[in-house]
Amino acid sequence: MFRIKYDFQIFLIQKYGGISKYFYYLSKHITKKNLTSKIIAPIHINGYLKNKNKKYFGFYLALESNIIKRSFWILNTIVDFFVSILSFYSINHKTFYSIYSDSHSSKKTKNITTIHDMNYELFPKFFKNANIISIKKKIACNKSDSIIAVSNSTKKDLIRIFKIFPDKINVIYHGIDHQIFNKNNKINKIVENLKPYILYVGNRHLYKNFETLLRAYVRNEQLKKRYNIVLFGGEKLSTNEKQFIKKNEIESKIFLFDGNDYLLSSFYNSASVLVYTSIYEGFGMPILEAMACGCPVIAGNNSSIPEVSENACLLIDQIEREDILENEMYRLLSDNDLLSEYSRRGIRQASKFTWEKCATEHLKVYKSL
What we know:
Layout: E1 3-6, H1 18-31, E2 36-44, H2 47-50, E3 56-60, H3 66-86, E4 91-94, E5 110-115, H4 119-122, H5 130-143, E6 146-149, H6 152-162, E7 169-171, H7 189-192, E8 197-201, H8 210-219, H9 221-226, E9 228-232, H10 239-247, E10 254-257, H11 261-270, E11 273-276, H12 285-292, E12 297-300, H13 305-309, E13 314-316, H14 322-333, H15 336-350, H16 355-368
Parallel strand pairs: 1-2, 1-4, 2-3, 4-5, 5-6, 6-7, 8-9, 8-11, 9-10, 11-12, 12-13
Helix pairs in contact: 1-16, 8-14, 12-15
């Protein structure tokens, strides 16, 4: 019997996030093909698994302490070992490249690793333990029978930095849950009361370049007067962010939210624009999700973003420059015809990406080994 295992790693790291979302939907759609696909996550903190019908091995705990998580990491590693011995899996698809442990597999099992980006290698000063994680990532790549890259951009970085043989790497794009992320007229009172607003989604640290959005925003009195800024997901406001917001007297204009994909879809649907300021992305899932909801997008013309978005969003060559971002935000938000055009283009482009297609392409790789 052809059996596929996804290990616990990312589900003990992420409550929500692009990588855990990818593995959740991949496992879900592989299972729909009448194959045995199991996520082995004995103890996890992940919101996607928490809401999943019980087709995975594990239990959800609301953990915040990193010390406790590391303790459960050891427990998960032990359970993973015994599960792998007692139940043979044809494919072991690792969900991360942990510095603490590795996913166990038998000699006959084929190992797969997905590379989502090369952030640790390109921006090591921005990450704790970047060098160790990068070493583990390279070891995982070398040990893997096949590697999945989430974009051609990521594949090129992988070949250039790790010197991986190109034929070992398969490019498979992520999908979108179009039942959640679509253009609709559902009313969410919390969201509606914030309109009109500029939306930012995800982490805001360092290479995400979020500070440029704030600086561009405060430069333009019309933007400040008319639009709020909604931040969805990511970390709490940092001390520097709080100081900047207070100094520029925009405390009443900034709103921070967290929640599930249904709430996120509501924010996409009601946003005037998504501004995605990152200077590097392995894929850029929020861009596609926004476009699927008909939300116009401004993003950087860098890394995988042009590849994934094509001509469906407004791309900026130097998005780290606040003066350029200010001008482009104001230009787009002042032109209703252009907003409508990017909305139409986005919906059309996003329709090309489905989890069903993603799972089918993974299955081809699995069965080729």
